[in-house]
Amino acid sequence: MKGFSEDERVFMNQDELLARIEELESENEQLSVRAKHLANELSVTREEYESTLDRYFTICGDMEQKVVERSSEVQELQVRISRAERMEALGLLAGGVAHDGNNILAGIIGYLELLQMELEPGDPREELVLEALAASNQMESLITDLLTLTQRSMTPKKIININEVIRFFVQSPELIKMRTSRYGLHVNTNLEPDLLNVKGASSHIYKALANLLAVLVELMDGPGDITISTSNAYVDQPVSAYDLKIDEGDYIVLSIRYTGNTVEEKHLQRLFEPFYTKKVMGIKGSGLGMALLYGIVKDHDGFIKAEMGSDGGGEFSIYLPICRDIETYSDGNLHGDEIKGSGETILVVDDIRTQREILTGILSRLGYSVSAVASGEDAIEHLRREKVDLLILDMIMDGMDGLDTFIEARKINSAQRAIIASGYSEGDRVVQALNLGVLHYVKKPYTVIKMGTIVKRALKVTV
């Protein structure tokens, strides 16, 4: 039989699966034609008849078994394609909601911070503003979760060690709350002392770990043990996983073993879909935890392996590719007078009026000379009339988007500085813009300190 092994089928991507199904359907048609042809091969002599008949039934029986096997394989691959398409559709839906939500929330936070800047110290209204900002930050966290589902979150990745993330987590308020709410919960660690590094976002790995443990604590339904362990591993052949393809190479493995109730196979197949754990399995929480885990692991080019114990409990293993680079850059925000400008000229380009007004107000109060336009085309006309020290571009706009505007701006001034500020964007367009010379990407909604820090650093760059 020409084709792929059982393990190899597990790791095919969608295009490979479609191609394999077409190949199998073609083979089935050929087998049917061959069977009809063999039916006409019975000879007239008794000896030849019996010999040919034996071969006929042997071959037909073998072909029938292969047809059954191929049909089963086709059904399995179709299920995997359906699952992948469903996850992609849910991600696109979440991304659309997050995009609109980010623009609305950016306006709310922006106006609140402008109001806060106008209040005198000790003004009783400041407490109300701070409460509103705190609520907005909670909403921002939820939107960030939705963006993570789309795999288009532009959180910078750095060289990190997963052991450090785990050590921080086991001392965190989240875990303390879990232990308090679940009597008899014991969380142990078994960390590889020489664990290799990975390239990722510590905050996302932390969130993935916290979300997974929150679900497992619910599954335990009573006292029990959770063991978090790490190890280095070399993968030289396919390993059974959810639906992610794993290439040969070096990985670190983050494993979480738990005791208690196991996850039934019918639930395991849909465990990582948004809201499935809440709506179907009845697990407390937002219902996004496992979907976020799935999205975060995919965003880090890793994969998840789930093994359920026959007598209860189970183990989730997260494989992440190692990185042998050395971290040389650490980022942090500036504060106070450090973020103030000295009259440098800035052009804000955004097709949403509230966004232009907010950013113009923030930057003006920080000491910059700010102009604003509503489109990429208007920005180019402005740049033909006068030079600016910095462009701040929204990524998604009607007509010329942020990338197109930057390319045209560089034709006018080859040393034009620019940053991109957007709540949701096509990942490859942002990456392309950064590769072409855009200095920074800042995600909406942003704080005054965050934007002030990015602008200050961009203006210091010599292009």
From TrEMBL:
Is Metal-binding set as a keyword in this record?
Answer: no
- Cite the Response regulatory domain residue spans from the record: 345-459
Keyword Repressor tagged: no
The residue ranges of the Histidine kinase domain are: 96-324
Catalytic reaction(s) noted:
ATP + protein L-histidine = ADP + protein N-phospho-L-histidine
Q: One of this protein's Pfam families, by short name?
A: Response_reg
Chain segments annotated as coiled-coil in the UniProt record: 14-48
In short, the EC number is: 2.7.13.3
State the signal peptide span.
Answer: none
Organism superkingdom: Bacteria
In the record, 4-aspartylphosphate modifications are located at 394
Alphabetically ordered keywords of this record: ATP-binding, Coiled coil, Kinase, Nucleotide-binding, Phosphoprotein, Transferase, Two-component regulatory system
Which molecular function terms from Gene Ontology are attached? ATP binding; phosphorelay sensor kinase activity
InterPro entries assigned: CheY-like_superfamily (IPR011006), HATPase_C_sf (IPR036890), HATPase_dom (IPR003594), His_kinase_dom (IPR005467), HisK_dim/P_dom (IPR003661), HisK_dim/P_sf (IPR036097), Sig_transdc_His_kin-like_C (IPR004358), Sig_transdc_resp-reg_receiver (IPR001789)
The protein's name is: histidine kinase
